[in-house]
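Quick one - inputs below.
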Amino acid sequence: MLSALVVVPLIGALIVGFFPGVLSPALSRLITIVFAAISLILTIVVGAAFDLTHVGFQMEEFLPWLPDLGLNYRVAIDGLSFPLVALTNLLTLLLAFNSSVGLKPGTELQRPRLFYSLMLLVNSGVVGAFVAQNLILFFLFYEVELIPFYLLIVIWGSDKREYAATKFLIYTALSGILILAGFLAMNWLTGAASFDYGAINTTDLSRSTQLVLLALLLIGFGIKTPLVPLHSWLPDAYVESSAPVSIMLGGILSKLGTYGIIRFAVGLFPETWVSVAPVMATIAAITVIYGSFCAIAQHDIKRMVAYSSIGHMGYIILGTAALTPLSMIGVISQMVAHGLILALLFYLVGIVESKVGTRELESLNGLLNPIRGLPMTAALLILAAMASAGIPGMVGFISEFMVFQGSFPTFPVQTLVAILGTALTAVYFVILLNRTCFGKLDSSSAYYPRVTRTEYIPAFVLTIVIIFLGIQPAWLVRWSQVTSDAIAFVF
Amino acid sequence: MTQTLTPPSTKIPPSTHPLAEVIHRLEAGGTMLPDTPENLMQIIGLYKAYAVPMDFYWRDLLYIAEQVFLDPLPWNKYLISEEYLDRENHYSGDNADLRIWRGCGDAHPELREFMAQGELKKNLPRILHHLWHDRINMEFAEECMRSMLWHRDMYKPWNQFDGFLDTDEYKQNCDRAIKAYFKGNPAMLGLYKLFPDLFYEQCRQMSYYSNLGLFWEVMAPVFFEMSDLYDEGKMTSVPAAMDFLVNGIFAIAGRPIYHHVYIKGECFEIIPKSKGFTWLYEAALPYVEAVFYRTSPFRGTKSYNAQAKQVPDNQPEFHFGVLYADKFPVGTAGIPPTFLAQDMLHFLPEYLVEYYKQHCRGEDDMLVQLAVSFQRSMYCVTSAVIQALRAALLYPLDDEDPEHLMANRQFFEAQMDRFLRPEARIRDIQTQEYR
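Output:
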């Protein structure tokens, strides 16, 4: 079943990309939607079969590959990976439904077959990384993302796409090299018979060796997350990408970084992690504040959302550093919440850009105007901003609350600084909303096209999920409670 | 099809005014609005849509001025009596003493149908339509009236109506009417004794109700006739529309402006016809000045900061009128345009509805599109007023004397100076893209 989650989108990617014959854009989109829908349905089936009380991995599937080299195809799922798989498949389906978001009215998605194929390939790779139980298998899936994302940025991006794509490529390639070096070193130094997660035991290694290995992983995954000061690829990549690719980057790819930190840095180096946790908590607090202040300074709303993303990833690292049961539930919830909210924000920014033709704060105003503005888009933007700022009733609140509540006993100062970040989130989103949604619509330029119902559907779905999980957070935390307890009690 | 204009005179050099193009058009007998079939269709369609609610406005304004008068709780002032709906217009119908429109003299059939059924298209008691806000919005008309009342001293010394409101004669007339109106009401009479100026001010307001009602009594049949001529193919250009207005203005310029109050069947002449106040100087000019140019900062969501000089110190410099108003109701200036737009929406001719459907957001933003058309049509009306003033005070456009032509030029340039403000929409209406 888990393999199907990896294989189905891969088959879809191959069909859309290499089908010998003409596939119209509409048919390519339909095929993508079908495969993405199947993946989501399979995720629901997995969820139905998921044992909430089971500690550790479940639904394991194993296939010997190169046993002599310790390489096996081993996949399984737990409370950390399942919510992220579900998030990935949900976002992929929504993006397949409307990949034209952000395009100028009247223009069509260029090279749709390649785009949809790459999108499904990314989906397959990310899900594979989340369910992989072998270090090298994880690494392969992790690296599979590199080229598709490079192409997605460089082909469908905006003016500075080449610069952004190259920067992304260099940073993530470096990230991959560091992670691979760490994985190989772990295997060699521990003398493990295979690269399976269960076969790696680092506790016998010296503390300094552990520190070096942990540093490799932290820098590698810290680039992907990203953490300050390893973040500089992110604003360019997010901003220069088309809206769907920004959503994939922020909603899907960035989770691989935090997932890797939890799975490998915490999971494989529990004692050393605790010793570096104060540093990580401090970096997390700096990330929160830095991301927030940078967001406040922006004039481009997409760049503002991008920096907002950096700030919010800091909460995840803070909770992970604290490593308490509550903070870990908050961390996993925050990863999902961040993915949903960021996807909604980027999606709405894409709509605004496509209809208004600009993302500049100075040029945007009065979008709530009921007659010629984009009132529904603006209303959803307000709601997304509220969710991002952690307003109660939405999923952002409950996850951030759990992170702060769980982290405060361990790192009170860093937590308070991070809480200050939530206030700053409110500041930059109030700036964004005040300038874009309110004020007087410029009568000389306000001839914006209508937003169609099709364009709204992904935004509505994300909004409903954000509100539903905010009102009923048990539906979010129930999947990861046992796993997060286990991670927290590892030490 | 457009009318060929007289070319601008070559006897004087071209204007160097920033709005020289418009000035040259005015000198050629044109309007501030470019002469295009699209503009013509918009302004005539809007005149028709405006005329129907205007037919209600003038009747209700006179009803309030003459019948409701100083009622301290005038809850029924918008529930006009049948008598006023049947009242014959002096300028249309068989009984008109100066017939402008060939149609009926009582309330327009479309108006009667709307008043009976409203938007709901249901024959409910009128009070229910009213409470549901399914009605003609008199608030717009009252705002225009208040604007005229507030911006006093306009067009002195030609406008003598305003000055008369402060005379002892006017107060004596008011005194008789007030005492008759509140006869048997010691509380109100006692209040009148204590605060007479309060009552006089209310009377002045009522006089402006009458003033505006009498002004619109003329304009409604003018607009109906223009619409009919357009439908018959006899109104073929924007200058022709303006000429019709100019001719109409001169034809009815001398019609009386007065204020009569009817109390228990007795007529009290607060402003008698014998005072000689006329339609052009005492109503039309102050109306255009107050409503088209000045009004007041709209009480919308945008705050005008007087201390930051966003509101001029002097009332004559106010620039919040229709010709300056933002087409969006939020944060705009001028008369609240939403009420009027809503009123006109019910009576748009079919060709205009079809036109709006083809642009911007079609039916969804028709209120904004028609507000822009209204602005274009009011630029045409203002052009008529400017040309009428020029004709009355200065020289013909085809005058042979360069000094006279230069005097005309200076007059036009002075008029255009008022549109140099960035808020003025004159530059916008030069293209069809402004919708």
